[in-house]
Amino acid sequence: MIDTPERLTQYAALLGDPAAKNKILVSMGTCGIAAGTTPVLDSLRAALETRGLANSIRLVEVGCMGLCHSEPTIELHNAETGQQVIFGNVTPEQAGAVLDAFSGEIKGLDTISRGWYYPEEEENVNGVPQARIALRNCGRINPEKLEDYIASKGYQALAKAVTKMTPQDVVQEIMASGLRGRGGGGFPTGVKWSFAAREKNDSKYVICNADEGDPGAFMDRAVLEGDPHSVLEAMAIAGYAIGSGNGVIYIRAEYPLAIQRLQIAIEQAKHEGLLGENIFGSGFAFDIELKYGAGAFVCGEETALIHSIEGMRGEPTFKPPFPAVEGLWKKPTIVNNVETFANVAAIIRKGADWFTSLGTEKSPGTKVFALAGKVKKVGLVEVPMGTPLRDIIFGIGQGIREDKEFKAVQTGGPSGGCIRANKLDTPIDYDSLIALGSMMGSGGMIVMDEDDCMVNVARFFLEFTLDESCGKCTPCRVGNKRLFEMLTEITQGKGTPETLDKLRNLGQTIKDTALCGLGQTSPNPVLSTLIQFPEEYEAHIVDKRCPAGVCSRLITYTITDACVGCTLCARNCPVGCISGERKQKHVIDQSKCIRCGVCYDTCKFHAIAKN
Amino acid sequence: MSCAACDSKCVNVIEKFPDKTAALTAYMASLPIGPDRNLNRGLLIQSLHKAQGIFGYLPEEVQRFVAEKLGLHLSEVYGVISFYSFFTTKPLGKYQISVCTGTACFVRGAGKVLDEFKRYLTVEEGETTEDGKFSLGALRCVGACSLAPVVMVNGRVYGNVTAKKVAEILSECN
Description:
The complex is a heterodimer of chains A (611) and B (174).
Chain A (H helix, E strand, L loop, with lengths): L4 H11 L7 E5 L2 H5 L2 H14 L7 E5 L11 E4 L6 E5 L6 H8 L7 E3 L33 H6 L4 H9 L2 H11 L11 H9 L7 E6 L8 H8 L1 H15 L3 E6 L4 H16 L15 E6 L9 H8 L23 E5 H13 L1 H5 L9 E8 L5 E6 L4 H8 L9 E6 L5 E4 L9 H6 L8 E6 L4 H15 L5 H18 L5 H17 L3 H5 L2 H9 L1 H8 L15 E3 L8 H5 L5 E2 L7 E2 L9 H5 L5 E3 L1
Parallel strand pairs in A: 1-2, 6-7, 6-9, 7-8, 10-14
Antiparallel strand pairs in A: 1-3, 3-4, 4-5, 10-11, 12-13, 12-14, 15-18, 16-17
Helix pairs in contact in A: 3-4, 6-10, 6-13, 7-8, 7-10, 9-10, 9-11, 10-13, 17-18, 17-21, 18-19, 19-21
Chain B lengths: L12 H4 L1 H12 L7 H5 L2 H12 L4 H11 L3 H10 L11 E6 L2 H5 L2 H12 L12 E6 L11 E3 L2 E3 L6 H7 L3
Parallel strand pairs in B: 1-2
Antiparallel strand pairs in B: 1-3, 3-4
Helix pairs in contact in B: 2-4, 4-5, 5-6
């Protein structure tokens, strides 16, 4: 039992400095496993046994390192030399080479620059773009071992909060840190806590929103899979601050590995007395239970989420009353997102001043982004607020795949918008993104190139919203349907200039009148692309042309004189509409062509023209 | 039409699989079910997860079974099932194919992959082939964005899928 702060300190000292051990970190998040980390782990374990190194080099299964572009990734820590190297795209056959690398000989391995990120403990080195607070332990500790978390200063913040601070001090510290909700809204966390703290009620709730639903964002999953104890610790701190003994984590059923690791972590914390009665001998009691989502994006909205926990359809209700006054089971409740919680322990441990030294004045700290799409280095990045988009996309992401031309970056998922090249130098924080017609959202960042059609992208997000609208309020249920139909007309070449006016008017009306955050932000992808890319809409409407060559109704494929008659396209055409003799120019029967583009993709002689 | 009036060959899974029913009964007996139906409702979603895990889907008799145990109306249970996309009232195929249609996969061509699956299996999204072998669905983001577009078949992830690879993936399902 770790029932006093002294015991925690003693235990941490007993575990020693994690940096003083030889180890190999193996990335075992969902994405790492999908990319084939398990056989690499097995092969490394076998190689350690064979060479008799199993006792001198520790093999650590860690969560996501954020280096999605090079999975399976492993990291080497040599305690004697202080050497730390990351290898990417590791195969099971390379296990021997990895162990050789311990003696300094690196051969045949794909080395990734160590400067890609640095953990919280290390000094900010010039030229290193990332700063890790929320992801401080992700990819560095074994998430299934409590001792790993404790050796990395785990639960010290909780010990400090419950034994040395009053609940008011804790609320004050979070307020002073300026931490804002990382789920997208950006509401000041400390203010939210203060609302719940001043309510008089014998039972209150702390809810962790782990219903990550933005398609293309997976930072919450990375935290839960890579560092679950950091969330539990923060929830207990929040409970102490607002006077609540009950924590609930609402997590997507689609995240089985995260659920499993949370269950293990809760069990461990309860066993050691870090959750339960009389935490650190302070008299404060806190317990956490897991509740599962069942696939509804709208449940990311806090009132809908609460209804879902209560076993009802996840429909939002009007605010006020805010959950801080009347939430779960009609009790005062705070709902915070996973990434928000992941910042809390570090703030309590190191102080609000340290936190505000990072980021911008109105948005202190860092933000995790899931950088994906047409960028060279897809990954999970954490940067100080105020970092320009260009540094993320062209610095960390190393630019566009196949060196095509950057067109836009989409932030904020279905609630956000597209930002084009001329705005890439904007330092990003909550307010600057809103000024650009987009929003922070949960941190999805999808990069698009010249081959992406902005009208079609807007239509994609609208389709998502249509799917996910709960149907309770008319503006969202019917309005978005009409927006979607108009966008479909445009992509089919049936749009008129009046369609654009209708889109703007209806979009604004939905923003003004929808019940919850989902509806109020759902027209953003349309409105932002209308402002940022008017020429693309006009090309579809006036010229009946899709400049990016995506909208299939507006393109025709023809075979040019470059055709050598290799017959490849004819053999691959799914509808058999390409004819011609071998070694003769082929022809596409336009009446049968379904414009699937298979011929265009398969032709080796660039003899298919797309217009 | 009530179940009794239906002359189709549908089976009552509660009666047909006593061991499965026993497993669900045991799970529900472990829940803190009390007289307050509002509080019982808080146990509904986890019970449905368990029931779907046991039976594979949630036909009417299973819904009725859960409703009775929790003291809820069948309409309340059905209302919840129909709201959440994770729950299904129809049996799924032996191979559940999910095409990721998250944004990263979308910009890298998930639409074409989904169309190709539809063409091959001659089913629409959310349907199961007549022989009960394949169910086709879309899911939003498995978080393997570096492998986009991604297809998941019974939990196994296929990365960098193109329309051409569709036949190959299907042929592996045997």
